Amino acid sequence: MAKVVAVIASTHHPFYYRASRSVGDERPPFADEWVAKIERFRETLTRARPDVLVMVGSDHFHQLWLDNMPQFLVGKAPVYDANWYNEEREFGLPRFRLEGHEELSSHILRGGLDSGFDLAFSNELRIDHSVTCPIITLRPEADLPIVPIYTNIFAPPLPQPKRFVELGRQIRALVEFWPSDQRVAIIGTGHLSLELGGPRQFGPHGPDPEFDRKAVEWIASGDVEGCLAEVTLDSLHAPGNATHGFMDFMLMMGAAGDGVRADHVDSLDLFHTMEAYFTWYPEGAPA
Amino acid sequence: MSKYLVDKFLFTIDRDPDLVERYREDPDGTVAWWEETQANRILGCIDDERSTWLAFTDEERTALRDHDHVALFEMGAHPFLTLTLFIAMFERDHDEPLAYQKAYGEALAHLSLPYPDITT
After folding, report:
1. Where does the record place the Extradiol ring-cleavage dioxygenase class III enzyme subunit B domain (chain A) (predicted)?
2. Which CATH superfamily is domain A3-280 in?
3. Is residue A143 helix, strand or coil?
4. In a domain, B113, yes or no
């Protein structure tokens, strides 16, 4: 059976690419520290020697639209082109072309459908920065095949937080039952407290540092129960109007396992939003 | 009230570089053209198989013509769509980094939780 060699949860900050490459007067004062943290984070994936990446993210109204909106969608295609004009425009992100892994996509789709998740699928998916940001930070070579999984954290009505946790658990179980000798990393990105297009946006910190502190602790300690006891679709409005992206972190907590402490935990308090990085090694830390 | 149609306007303009410029320079003309020819297009369908029922309310049309992001927020337009498009149109008019984004937030400072519902 396949091995889950790493479970990784991260924020996806579209400004990292530009900040990390900027020089001279253009380089923000926090860039060096940010790059150092990302390089340590990247090493946690490199050490796990993955062959395939399952990548959980959320389309930001790029390909998925309100006339036909899936809640959970699995990409099943041989190739994924990536990034969009408005992401090049606003964030300076480069375009990518990533190889897919149709066999693992099929396995997750079939297994999900047979276990209570009526997953949507796409045979032609152009992916966005929720997936390419972690490629840039964790695997800039972009040389591994991927299975993209999109969740709806963006266009209400949304699925319940509990459903994200359950899907994370199921993805983990399905990968572990995949008859293959491949080494799989499951990587998902979301947000801590975040406000976009509202009065609390672009402040000196994230809109709710207290939520961020609690969220990092829930994730780092694998406290699924504590997190689910406090987080509801309604409660997530309070820390910031885009904080429903935290549910992708909850999905990754499900993938990592209840009560399982992360092997790597790091964060960076930036303007606008806090960055946070977590890695678990289900097979034990690699040498 | 058609939050969906307002969002559809923001979505279809934001993804097209020519339309971003056109909406910046000629908001009245762009909104009129869009409502007349685009509002009922089903994305992914041929023109002949369009919808027959979508139109802006006066309030929505005015907010879009006035580039009024505060009114759009107050009527429950999706804040990500509005923000992204407005940064594309107006950040260039500000020298200081993030000055436009901060002013955009300050213009909404009178709003408190719960924010207007964005459910479509």
Report:
1. 8-271
2. LigB-like (3.40.830.10)
3. coil
4. no
* Set of chain B residues whose Cβ sits within 8 Å of the Cβ of A156: 117-120
Count of pairs with CB atoms under 8 A, one residue in A, one in B:
80
Whether the CB of B94 is below 8 Å from some CB of chain A: the reply is no
Calculate the CA dihedral of residues A173, A161, A71, A61 and round it to 10 degrees: -120
> How many CB atoms lie under 10 A from the CB of residue B106?
12
- Rg of the Cα trace of chain B? 15
Q: pLDDT for A171-224, tens place per residue?
A: 999 999 999 999 999 999 999 999 999 999 999 999 999 999 999 999 999 999
**Per the CB < 8 Å rule, is B108 touching A199?**
yes
The verdict on residue B15 lying in a domain is yes
Residue type, A197: G
The answer as to whether B120 is a domain residue is no
Q: Is B48 among the domain residues? A: yes
d(CA B111, CA B79): 13
B115 vs A contacts (CB less than 8 Å): 198, 237, 241
Q: What is the ipTM of this complex?
A: 0.96
Number of domains chain B contains:
1
